[in-house]
Structure formats: C-alpha cells, structure tokens
Amino acid sequence: MQTSKECVLNAIEGKGPDRIPLCMDFDSDALNRAITENIVKDYNADILIIPSYDPEFVPVAEGYTQWGYKMETFGETMGEVKNPPLKNWENFENWKSHLPDFTAPGRYAEAKRCRQLYPDKFLVGGLGMMMEEIINLRGYANCMVDYYDEEENLNRLIDCLYEVGKQMVDGYAEAGMDAVMAWEDWGLQRGPMMSYQMWETYYYDRMKSFVDYIHKKGMKYFLHSCGHITYLLDVFTEFGVDVIQMDQQMNMGLELLGKWTGKICFLCPVDIQHSVQMTKEEMGSYIKDMIHALSTEKGGFMYKAYPQPAAIHMPEEQLRQEIELMKNG
C-alpha cells in the first residue's frame, strides 16, 4: 500500500495512486467542530493543511486578523469585512507597517512539528486568501473600481501580497512542506469575475513568477478557486498549477471541466451547492460521474471535504456518507 505522500504525488503527477487521496481540513469554530470532530478521529487523511500564524503576533485589536481587519459573521458563514482597513489608500503605509513578520521562525514551528510527527503524510502550507485579500482590505465595490481607476495603488498592494506570499513559501519550504495552497475565488456563479484581459494585465506575469518560485523550492502549488473559472484554467495549466481545488463543479459542468482532465489535478468535494439536497443514490451517482470525468486511469482526482459543513447545513451523518462514497468511488 502506498504511503499518503506517495499516493498524493502519484495522483498529482498521473503515476497511478492506489486509492483516491483524502483531505479533511475543517474550520475549528464550535459549529463546524461539532460536526467534524469525530470524523477527523475516524478517518485517516492523506493530506494535511497547516496554517501559518505567528503566536507572538499582536493584532491591532481583539478579533482582528493578521491583515488588520475583522470578519463580521452572520449565521454559520465566515462573514465579511465591515470596515476595510484600506478603504482609503492614504492608510496604505500605516497598514503595511502593522503587518506581522512573515519570516518569523515561530510562524512555521507548527509546520516543522507536523513534518516530524507525520513523515509519510502529504503536508500543505496554507498561504491564506492571497489575492482575495484585496477584497477584504478594500471592500468589493472599491476593489472592482480600482482595476480601472487606481492602477498605481492597486499594483502596490498586489506586489505587497505576492512578496508576503514568497516569504511564506520560503518558510514552508524550510519546514519541509510538500506543497503550499492559496485561496482565490476568481469566478462568479455563471461567469468570470473580470475579463480575461483585465486579469492578464494585473496577474499573468506575477502568478507565473509565483508558481515558478514555488516549484524552484521543490513544492507543489494547490490553488482554490470557486465560481465559473474555466476562463482561467488554460492559464493555470500553462503556469504549471499542480492542483485546482474547487468546491463547485455543476455550475460549469463535468463535461466542460473534463477538457482539463490529465492537465491538472482536481481536488473536490461533491458540489456544495447541491450535496445536502442529494439522496445517497444521487450522491453516489454524481461521485462516479465526477471521478470518471475529472481523472484518468493514472490519477488526476483527489477528495477534499468542505471545511465549513455548518455553512451548508450538512449534518455529520451525511458528511460521513459522502466520505464513504468517495472512498469507494
């Protein structure tokens, strides 16, 4: 039997995994923990995602993130930023001066500990939301206007985020991680968040350089992106993004996504907009269709449970059902 690390690498590289690799990385708040704490104990995950956080960092105020904002939650969702710290660009230098030290050794102590504790697991260092932080820092409406009216300021912010990203890549590489992962939602429900031409202007060269940087450090690159993102999948495969993690598939369709089968490794749960409403038979049928569409005989598909089951009202029993069906898929 292949070790977790061997199985995951074989799935990513198309070298024949002996099973579908599993990733069960869940949010640690009380609502999600109530659903998942026994599941984590009962299932042997192949992929572990290790977050980056400096235990010595002091936020600007209680409840604020390392990026200087506070998420205001409503219901079971992660919420949104009500008062973006960069609502006014005049605050940029002050905001930047209060960022934590992303090179601090303590930030990667947990990654090093996990590497020693789980030598045969596939370990992924979490980079955070990367470019999605622009929305949190500026606010969605401001952010969308910035692409037209604030090119200089927006470029300063993007460069800052990529520089921090590279510092984190360095820290994770030194800690012995197998990959790093960023969360970037580039799509809306039925189409792109922006035109490809606009995306290319701001991100093409930067992302290409970033992916190259990660690979030179000997790690794989996992990229999360939800929404309708087919307008970027050719570019992601061109750059050598190793794994695309998408929580939605049905809005694009498995047949269309199959165009990239064998070119990039898919890391997915059952579509989170539909899974809770599915019967066991429907879920089992969809899982078989998804595996058939998105993988080859030599791999190309892995499973990642949705990290916020409470947000989609998925009970523990149904989450267990999804995992079991995926294992037997």
Automatic annotation (TrEMBL):
Protein name: Uroporphyrinogen decarboxylase (URO-D) domain-containing protein
Family matches, as InterPro entries: Methanogen_methyltrans (IPR052024), UROD/MetE-like_sf (IPR038071), Uroporphyrinogen_deCOase (IPR000257)
Top-level taxonomic group: Bacteria
UniProt-listed SUPFAM superfamilies: UROD/MetE-like
UniProt cross-references to PANTHER family, sorted A to Z: METHYLCOBAMIDE:COM METHYLTRANSFERASE MTBA (PTHR47099:SF1)
Domain Uroporphyrinogen decarboxylase (URO-D): from-to ranges: 36-255
